[in-house]
Amino acid sequence: MGIRVENLHKSFGTEKVLDGITIDITDRSFFSVVAPTGAGKTTLLRILAGIESADAGTVYYDGTEMSDVAVQDRSVGMVYQEFINYPSLTVRENLASPLQVSDENYSAEEIERRVQETAEMLKIDHILNNLPEEVSGGEAQRTAISRALIKEPDYLFMDEPLANLDYKLREQLRGDFERLFSEQDTTVIYATPQAGDALAMSTHIGFLHDGKIIQKALRDEIYYRPRYLPVAEYLGEPPMNIVPVTLVQESTSTDRYFEVDEDTRIPATGFDSLSPGEDYLLGFRPQDMRLSENGEASISPALSFVETVGSTSTLHMNFQGREIYALHPDPVHLDTGTSISFALDPQKFYVYDPEAGDLIATGSSIPSFS
Amino acid sequence: MAEIEVRDIRHVYDQGTADETVAVDQVNLTLQDGTANALLGPSGCGKTTLLQIISGLLQPTEGQVLIDGEDVTDKPPSERDIAQVFQFPVIYDSMDVYGNLAFPLRNGGVPEAEIEERIQKIADLLELNDILHSSPSNLGPELNQLVALGRGIIRADTSAILFDEPMTDVEPARKLTIRRRVKEAQQEFEITALYVTHDQHEALTFAEQVAIMRDGHLVQYDTGENLYENPVNTFIGHFIGSPGMNLLDCGLTQTNGAPHAQIGPHEISVSEDIHSEIDLNWTDCQIGIRPSSVTVQVADPKEDTHYIPATVDQVEMVGGYQILTTCLDDTDVEVKARVAHDFMIEEGASIWLSFPPGTIQFFHEKQAVHAS
Known about the structure:
The complex is a heterodimer of chains A (370) and B (372).
Chain A: E1 3-12, E2 15-25, E3 30-34, H1 41-49, E4 56-61, E5 64-65, E6 76-79, H2 91-100, H3 108-121, H4 137-149, E7 155-159, H5 167-182, E8 187-192, H6 195-201, E9 204-209, E10 212-218, H7 219-224, H8 229-234, E11 241-249, E12 256-261, E13 264-267, E14 279-284, E15 289-291, E16 302-309, E17 312-319, E18 322-328, E19 342-344, E20 350-352, E21 359-362
Parallel strand pairs in A: 3-8, 3-9, 6-7, 7-8
Antiparallel strand pairs in A: 1-2, 1-4, 4-5, 9-10, 11-12, 11-14, 12-13, 14-20, 15-19, 16-17, 17-18, 20-21
Chain B: E1 4-13, E2 21-31, E3 36-40, H1 47-55, E4 62-67, E5 70-71, E6 82-85, H2 97-107, H3 112-126, H4 141-153, E7 160-164, H5 175-189, E8 193-197, H6 200-206, E9 209-214, E10 217-223, H7 224-229, H8 234-239, E11 246-255, E12 258-263, E13 266-269, E14 285-289, E15 295-297, E16 308-318, E17 321-328, E18 334-339, E19 350-354, E20 361-364, E21 367-368
Parallel strand pairs in B: 3-8, 3-9, 6-7, 7-8
Antiparallel strand pairs in B: 1-2, 1-4, 4-5, 9-10, 11-12, 11-14, 12-13, 14-20, 15-19, 16-17, 16-19, 17-18, 20-21
Helix pairs in contact in B: 2-3, 2-4, 3-4, 4-5
């Protein structure tokens, strides 16, 4: 029951939005399309659902070509950023409406059973008799999702459904979604610019860049092994730090270093496949930076300021003219301008090609996926 | 810059009608001169109403607004010298960025030489130098929001600046940079600032003190550290933190002469300094512990009775860490625990948790119990 997309193209006027999308969406997976606003996520979702047509390319549902199948004849549900419910109908009537207008002649008992079941699943059974305006934003969005789910569609398309919700509600719904859809037969296709939402909920993630899905993989795989620089720089909270370096090895020694400048050398232990004298982009995650004591420094960036939220501090720093970040699992109290150093662990490094931007080596403790 | 005080503010919409709603009730709050503050709360808590009362867009039903001790409750917004940055940047497309920044000063008859000097300072601070002569319509919403901020703070006589969800239109990936520049501008100019948001991350990163509202009431006005470490009630405990504090219903037992929290078959020690405050006959008790304070162990700790066995139900990647949702064995009590982003664990795994006594809060009837 998965979806296959082959070589999809779409332009609006002279603007190429989708430029050859080919992906397989696994049956029953929770697949997130991640990209900044304006990258074409919504267009891709609309084409997959059959609401919009592509200029070229083919969409298959469970192996069947879908070009000539109208959206109303497909087993799909849609949820949008603006939660759309009928304002004059109660939540119960909103949920029942897709079944009542369906050609399939659901019996009153069947409708009641499905409304009850879906409402319980989405935890809105206590507001079934309320009007949409009488319920909270989170409940209104859960009502919209229930409506999309009530026909038990094979495919559910969600376009930034959490964007208009309060932070706390989003946090709760993220957990609810992950749990709900891991138990459902529905295949979910979810578009979001929020790396955090995708990382929290998805089984699979695809990153849309310049009209192409440049990487699509299991959630853990794309997080631990972002194959291209734009993926690495987007999928993280905060993003992966990237620093231009040159690999150096003195003729008198076997030790290798990533040289940032004359004064800054970072051990390159274990990166035997790289060539001395070559330029690389070195990546390391903010979580993997440790404030160093007793002079074991690798790098000494300038501290711009510290943000502490609860038990976590984010250090904003400037290093070689770039903004970099470190995440510290305990609150740190440091003033702007304090001189600080970090020990970096080569086992957690990522090395990217500066021209092509692809991942060419990783440290030994980065998990690999076959 | 100035001190802003709201005193006994109450605001009722549609008073005397069937739709009568109390939006703000008995709110007292003083924003010290030059400090960064945030007003945080869920939708409908009254924060936007309070903001409009401070800016003068709304007359409160009861209470006063004071700027540096002077009652301005009856004054229109134009006489309060309060700058505002809204959700969506309000700037003039017909002028370039320089013209937008100069606008409030030219209106006030400031000499051009001084205007140029002030614009230069603002542009340096907000990193707008490269776009001073660009048209706003060619810039993204992030840069336009910075221009709106610059225009808000450029006048020397601005008494305060109010931000109303200013990051709404900012790309997630750009938020870190924009936040830094806004914060640096506030610190450099020592502006009294109030930042309204539903996003705790924005509130806690911007403000020295955060006022949290719920149902029209001010619940706690405190530093981020205190809101996190010492929430006054379970609402704050849950609301602050991502995810919020674990709040575990518990009974009370006496073991070795000391009160313990009882959850199913598990006994948990509570901090010694509140032993004398606890009445063993209490009901409606909860212990609170932050997910980051829960200690997780994957190997059976055997003899160490501080550890409680649990099962991992869910693993989520949140804010650069993994959050484990676990269920304590032989109970239906859910506990969230934070572990490193590269901590390898599968859903369904057995683990052991411990709750270090110094990190546990105790709540009775939803209110925090403190040492007297």
